[in-house]
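Chain X:
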Amino acid sequence: MTLLRQFIVFGTDNAGIERSLRFVQALVSLIATYPAFQVAAQLHLTSINVPPPASFLLLRSKINLTRRLLRFLRFLDQFKLGWDVYASGILDFDALLDVLCKTSLGVFGMLETVTLLDLLEIDQMQIFGPEQTASLNYQAQWFWLVALCISLFRSATRLLRILGNQVAPSPSSTNEKEKDAQKESEHQDRDGSAPRKPNENQVETGDRQTKPVEPVSPLILKLISDAMDLLLPASAVGLVQVDSEVIAVAMIISTAITANDVWAKCGRDMRRG
């Protein structure tokens, strides 16, 4: 019952709906480009009337347009997040990267939003025209590409920093600690005093005591998700040549990872409510 309630919350959440549609869009794209479906239709290996690839491609574009409508003003949130980091007054290197990343995502969403009316293809209601609309969407892909590259760089540096802090102590230092403990025990035996418990009346001031260790798994998943998403704008602007099947599979992987975050958030909101 709890799982059903969480599914309902996920299915009625704006981010959950957008992630679900993105997953369906990736599946439709995979069906449209995967040769096995075309071969099955030609050889009549299935009793189901398989539509032609053009129908699936048209369905993919309609789903993508629906997702853009769901993200209509979300770019304002990205601009606000970037401004909050800038206004905090702590502009170190990581904060500057965060501002650039969120601002790039904001510009990407803004360019997608202003071309919505043209993509609806309603007569006498176009704003930019087909050529200018295609140009604006092409530029939007560059801003998305920049944002993903920054996010990848930040996640990779954070992961390396965490792994560097978790380096095991060298055997020499461990042996020295064992020798010191043995000497202290022998000294207490000679004095006749009761041995102290480890770390009794001692306070450690290292980073392990003052700073919580950041989990590694979410960073690794974010790296994978950003790397998969990077194929989409990189291929759209012509930086890489990737088959449509590969892009569809990458889109499915990244959507599953990011949808899991939304699913967990919906679960937390349900328990709080």
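Chain Y:
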Amino acid sequence: MQSFVDRLDHPVYVVTVAADEERAGCLVTFASPCSIKPARFMVWLSTLNRTYRVARSAEQLAVHLLGRDQHALAELFGGETGDRVDKFARTAWTPGPGGLPVLDGTLAWFAGRVEAHVDTGDHIGFLLSSVAGETQEPTKRRPLCLSDVVDITAGHPVS
């Protein structure tokens, strides 16, 4: 299966969360729409990641689609750990629904209510239903994809 997965080059996302007076966020490579009716989206967070620890008690998550010109933002949320760095002090954001940190300037974002958690191994799936969101007007900006971020070393341990 790994040779199959190695051929995929899908968009990457930044997921942000606010719960219990904490904020967290991370770069996510496992995410997908998973239902049309009702509309649902699943994001998987590593159980080793601080964002997962904060998200466990959250009612909502925000999912951001980055543009290819936002590699530095991907590096901040993927290459640093919130255990050592306040990522939100290093980037522009605004409070969104339920106090979620919404990153400025992304191609699109949505806030999703957590409908369920799914244990899939070393990542836990968060099943989301959209409660709010925003998409930029169509531009020539292309989404940041997995192949664009292979140079980023994870800020938290992989295993």
